[in-house]
Amino acid sequence: MLFLLWILAVILVVGGIVQLFRGQLLFGIVLIIVGLLVGPGGVSIFSK
């Protein structure tokens, strides 16, 4: 499960960075923040 959360977080953050380069600033920032929240490290919403 931890590995799947890590993969999901990486996909969300990379997708957010791609959206930033495409000009979708708000959507890119939201994806990056959600990716950081879902990720197993740091501030994970699933670790509490």
UniProtKB/TrEMBL annotation:
Regions that span the bilayer: 26-46
NCBIfam families the UniProt entry points to: membrane_GPGG
Keyword Transmembrane helix set for record: yes
Domain of life (superkingdom): Bacteria
Protein name, per record: Uncharacterized protein
UniProt keyword list: Membrane, Transmembrane, Transmembrane helix
InterPro entries per the UniProt record, alphabetical: GPGG_membr
